[in-house]
Amino acid sequence: MSFPQLFAYFLCQVLSIAIFARAILSWFPVNPGNQLVAFLYQITEPILATMRRIIPRLGMFDLTPMIVFFVLQMTAGVIAGL
Length: 82
Fold this sequence. Notes:
The protein is mostly helical. The chain has helices at 3-25, 35-54, 64-81. Helix 1 (3-25) packs across helix 2 (35-54) and helix 1 runs antiparallel to helix 3. The model has no long low-confidence stretch (mean pLDDT 93).
């Protein structure tokens, strides 16, 4: 695997973990001033906000993190298969 492929694969994996962690944290009352929580929001919000403009909410459910997670995992799989 070349360096650009490896970098893209690693980036997809890190973003997937961050989105998963953010989704899990949304179930608990967390302090938004916490540095870890703020960091997770900073790195995941750009991609989630972009997808929220495309994918509508289903009532009070936001499926955007799940959809982005699956897209990132499929992208990582395609990159790994090259």
